[in-house]
Amino acid sequence: MKLIAALFGTALWTHALAAPGCPGAAVWCDGFDDGAARWTATNGRAAPVREGTGDQVLRLEPDSTLASRDSVAPAAQPYFVEARMRPLGAAGQSYLLARYVDERNWIGAGIDVTPGSPKVNLVIAKMQGGKLTRLKQWGKESLPEKAFYTVRLALAGDELTLYLNGERLTSATEPLMTSGRIGLLTQGAAFELDDVRLGAPDALPGRIGLARMNNRVALQAGDAPLRLLVNADGRRPVAVAAMSSDPSVASAVIDGDALVVTAHRAGQATVGVASSADRNVAAWLGVSVGPRFAPPVRAYPAAERFSPAAGAAQVPVDTVLRIRFDRPPVLGAGGSVRIFRAADDALVDVINVGDELDVMGARRQAFKRVVRRKLVKIEGDSVVIRPHSSRLVYDSGYYVQVDPGVLKDAVLGGVPFTGLGGRRHWSFRTRAALPQGAVLSVDGDGPADFRTVQGALNHAMGQLPRAAPVTIRVANGRYDELLYLNGKDRVTLLGESRDGVVIGTSNDDGTNAGSGSGQGPVSPGASGGRAVFLVEDADLLTLDTLTLVNTARRAGSLGAQAEALNFNSGGRLVARNASFWSEQDTIQVKGYSWFYRSLIAGNVDFIWGGNRAALFEESEIRSLGDSANAQSGGYVVQARTLGASDPGFVFLNSRLTHGPGPAQNDVPPGTTWLARPGTPQSHDKVIYINCRMDAHIAPAGWSLPKSAHAGAGAGWREYGSMDMHGAPLDLSGRVGGRTLTAAQVAAGFANRAQVFAGFDNGRGWNPQLQDNQ
């Protein structure tokens, strides 16, 4: 049979391959090529469907269940079950059942899809006595139409581990049924399923990835072919095949270690790469092809509306492009802005309308942050175009062209704007040399070394020694940015004023799923995460006199988690006179962090992380009205502190206040909890000392169930809690927490030096009001 038939049916593949027997270390498998004779329908309907020459998949109608006729699921031994699943258009779920007793009792894993959503949810679920419990959920970027999701659930004792397309996502611990068969189940939608397998769990799944690439890309007809590095299990693949659902739109071939995609005509196609030995191991790419790039060669009478100005010199290399129109334009449905090098007409950047992928970081930096975001936006009467990270270089001339489809209803100097072509109409030259010294400046439109905060961070990461202190002075303004810092110590971001310097944008778990991490040159996928500012492998980062904000809303969100700051580092963080805003997960911290006279505002778990010690001193902790649930006051902290002896989250001489959220609703009285439990593998270490608490804090204080670590040196604790006027609070109604004595506070939590005594294997850290160099 052809591999084309196994995955796409009638689509064109680069070469044909023999059908495997039971690949992937499986001891039992069924590809439905001989029908569904090995399965029994216990509910609904299922039927094999021929997808192409010699291959069949199983179409399972909505609300149907199949169970294997063979009792192949071992009762005690570890094993995995795996299958490929493809949704057929409607919203619904499909489950792969690892232990099926009957329709009211099973355990399994599956996918939850919503058509048009950028995200799918992967679920480990248990049905017991007719009651469904979702043990774990994990959001991932949805695959393009016609692609299969390869779902695997591995069972070892009570441990269940979930994989998607070879990537380990999450695990859960749950007592299993003692017997059962394997099964397939759909709810609410029809699915096609294929290549069901069972095998030993120590045989890890294979994985193919496209380096630093998400699941979708926009191209234009006639462009140079797109080359994407392919890797398998972190190494170069030995034998893979490329395929396209419509090669007249976009063709795909393998050239060495790269997938090469060529756009031919406007339309949509799904491109994939699959292992020659195992069709369950595949990567997918949705390709949207727009019309050929063909801007008109014409001039406009308002050249001064361009920024940088036409013919400008000494332009920062991270410049933002702007055109100011007579009235607010409308963003078009497609097209691109392109930057060419003047010396040789080489294309250096293509900036598409809609979601784009940006690889953030210094030019020669090994690990970079890969994120999806919109780089072309309308702001008032201007279009703002942000080039991809680190595309322009010093002492070089460039010119800009704009596709006709980028804007609609745009008028420039009284003339309808239909795009911009030619070499001379919008050209500029970058500054001649790199900035020198330990102080860098950022200003959105005034004289400065950089136009963006990330441009200055790229310079610090790429040009300065790791241990060399650097201060980045940021002028007042709104900086619509995501930020990334990796591998550079002693960086200070110093704003001109706390409320005047606002850095941030909208980013959430539905846009860039997960907490995020940097990726190496061959790392598969795009996993830059949902935070505005992601920090990795950095020590002594100082955020001073500025505001970080994530404007994502919980209401209507496809992924409400949305950090303003993710300090994903074991080092030290200082935040002085700074503000942090979001609704859910506002700050996530690891390592050691000191927040002094700062504001942290949010609603759900808006202070959290797997940290060692975080001290919030003389700060304001503001609970915001929830845009998704006006009656909810949320949770201040979810602690996942790493060590039993670590202080965790300590609030000293701070104020717990409330205020309106993005929907302008305030927090109802008595609805906010001081903390809720973390994970069984971590420690619930939360302490409030001499803090003033407003009426939004629930009288019971701590959310049930109570902390799993409530011993003498752990759990949820407080001392000296007051109302907003300084009068002692009545703590008799508290549930699940403990009240400390003055002696206990004096022994370990009275000042910074005590809280951070465990830093550097007990050498300690005592941060000061000035930079601790």
UniProtKB/TrEMBL annotation:
The segments labelled Disordered in the record are: 505-525
Q: Could you list this entry's UniProt keywords, alphabetically sorted.
A: Aspartyl esterase, Hydrolase, Signal
Record has Signal as a keyword: yes
InterPro entries (alphabetical): Pectin_lyas_fold, Pectin_lyase_fold/virulence, Pectinesterase_cat
* Presence of the UniProt keyword Translocase in the record: no
Annotated ranges, domain Pectinesterase catalytic: 442-735
Q: Which organism is it from?
A: Massilia niabensis
Q: Which SUPFAM superfamilies match?
A: Pectin lyase-like
Please list which residues make up the signal peptide. Answer: 1-18
Which named protein is this?
Answer: Pectinesterase family protein
For this protein, the record's Gene3D superfamilies field holds: Exo-inulinase, domain 1 (2.60.120.560), Single-stranded right-handed beta-helix, Pectin lyase-like (2.160.20.10)
Q: Which domain of life does the UniProt lineage start with?
A: Bacteria
> Would you identify the family this protein belongs to, as annotated?
Belongs to the pectinesterase family.
Report the transmembrane regions from the record. none
